[in-house]
Give the backbone structure.
Amino acid sequence: MSEESARLERVANVMRGVFALAPGQAVTRATNSADVDGWDSLSHSLFILGVEDEFGVDLPLDKTFELKDVGELVDLIGVAEPRP
Amino acid sequence: MSATLGERLALHARERADATFCTFLAKGATETISFAQLYDRSAAYAAAYAREGVRPGDVVVVILQHTPHLFYSFLGAILAGAIPTFMPFPSPKQRADLYLEDHRALFARIRPRLLVAYPELPRFEIPTLIASDAILAAGECVAPYDARPEDVACLQHSSGTTSLKKGVMLAHREILDEVAAYAKAIAFTDRDSIASWLPLYHDMGFVACFMASVVLGTHLVALDPFEWTMRPTMLFDAIQTYRTTFTWLPNFAFSHLVNGSRKDAVWDLSSVRAFINCSEPCKAATFARFAERFASCGVRPETLQVCYAMAENVFAVTQTPLGRAVNVVAADGFADGVVSCGPPVDGVELDIRDGEICIRGPFLFDGYYLLPEKTAQKLRDGWYHSGDLGFIRDGELYVTGRVDDMLIVGGRNHFAHEIEACVNGIPGVLPGRNVAIGVEDRRTDATVVVVLAECAEDADHAALVHAVRAEVAARIGLALHAVVPLRRGEMVKTTSGKISRVKNRELYLAGLLPSGGVGR
């Protein structure tokens, strides 16, 4: 498994917890808020908080507003500095 | 004592010139604005309005993101004798063409003389002034307009679909008197201060935070609503740093602070005299969770209070008494009881007519701007008919629901029929056979909207769900929680043949809609 697909799988696990995804609901790089029940601005922030804790990073606030899909989040995590 | 907002602004600029009006927090930076600066910069806007040909009585619409120019442009219009009004900017998913289309009908009615905007706002066909620091640097001044206390100072626009927005007309005297009466109800003194992330186009952010600070000459710590949504505990950082004493929040925000705080995080919130729950129905369970989670930070049950407010009464109608925990009473249909909103603010009278809360008092609005028929519907014999249902017990008000189909989502009002109309035209959705219902999201404790839609047999459900979400987001700026495609005839009708929102909501929540729709 590549580093990127491992990151995607960990992000998908956070999503399963935050959004209570239906069993078998796939998460891909193209998955976005229109695909997921309950993905609104409030739950988005809880999702980002969960991702930050999972990866031990702090993501830049302005970038987390603008994410278009899961793929962009996976890429953002890839370039984030670990928490001190 | 000063009798208009302009006079009050000038008074603070003279007598409290160097005192801090606002600590403005945005994008990691902090800007401090004194009362003298607030006046001078507002006066600079008044001069800019004069150059743009704005005359007393003209409407000036302010559509700005989080910037101190919100304050200056609004108060500048007051100094110029114009009638300012804040309106929300488009949400990131709202389509520019639909945003413009939606506002055109409203602007055709209220005919703003000028729009104050940020550079990226979609352009309207009305004169537009782009907010910038260059306006403040112009150094030109005009004499403030000599307004009368009974003159309309500003309009507060109700939320919901833009073209149906009603501009609540508020006179200088009504705003000054309401702020004074409400300050008395919560024993707010010039040593108190406010921390707020609330947008100014909403009455809670506009009156309870911004106007109160302007009128009373007190300190406001202002956070960006978008940043707060992503990092809710930045409010606690601000309270801890600036030792503020009051914060107003809609119910969902209490839960967002609990859910959005890391388990081991602690703040010193002991300066807070009251967190006031307002603009959404307050839930006892939400208060209990908040008090438990932040007890170690200095939050006590008696610091959690409730206000019932509306733009038509400037702001506060009732307020729970500070210093003791709020009352909760048992009522049919409310498993956790109903939380008190407290007794009326001084001068305000309440009456319950056929279950509806009606209000009379000295700060009641003058009517809806250029909407005499709407005004006559809601304001009858001096009583405002609120559309809220409730009862009074031992002198305190309890709110139980709505007369109409209004849904309060994230502190903003949406009407179910507007959402349904938006869904109706989508290919695959059977016309007139969808309902928008409000349900509680157990994870966020927020009211969210679910659309139940009967669909054509050959409809592609996944594509339809996408299309419905996209259309509602683009037109109304509302993120639907779920879209549930159903087969023709699955939903229950009322005796008059309409699809019943109430019955189908019950079926959805019980998981009893035949082709799916698992309630949350």
In short: The interface with chain B takes residues 18, 20, 33-35, 37-46, 48-49, 53, 61-62, 64-66 of chain A (CB under 8 Å).
